[in-house]
């Protein structure tokens, strides 16, 4: 039985979708809020041939919130690049993400017609998804996100030397007071060292939030990597 909450989606505006985007929310949020937030940034965040999925994370105890129950993709010791990852918690959500991808595969959408991305913790989950769990996806994106130092993602992309990895769009505000810009830069540069190609965009005067310019960049990225077929 799935641990995920309600699955909100934006249907393609054409007759049948030939691609899928999975957009993960940040900690303590939900799929419906992520969908509405994106819509407020870019009113026409829809595509004639692409279905956009906004899953909701399972409700579980979250250590940075004092152990209170929260909708989070996985637990972590602290919101800090220097702490180790809670690998058992990440492994639990791995099953759910793989099931989401498999449902799309079973519906006729191959992994190379799927893009995975997210905001904050959702972006970190997208990086695990793209560079550990299904490297055949079309592309990934992460907004206001980072990976911990010594993340298992880095270990696995090192071992994937010679394998083509999904391209990455990473976006971050220059006054983010929750996830320091340097953490995001370190994440992007380490992934790049191990063969991940992509783009890193800094948003001026932006804190830990989406903005219109950034969401437009995501929309362009989706259209580039999931063209109509």
Automatic annotation (TrEMBL):
Keywords: Hydrolase. PANTHER family: LYSOPHOSPHOLIPASE-LIKE PROTEIN 1, LYSOPHOSPHOLIPASE-RELATED. It holds the Pfam family Abhydrolase_2. Its EC number is 3.1.2.22. This is palmitoyl-protein hydrolase. It comes from Spodoptera litura (Asian cotton leafworm). One of its GO terms (cellular component) is cytoplasm. The gene is LOC111360809. One of its GO terms (molecular function) is palmitoyl-(protein) hydrolase activity. It comes from the Eukaryota. Residues 10-225 form the Phospholipase/carboxylesterase/thioesterase domain. Belongs to the AB hydrolase superfamily. AB hydrolase 2 family.
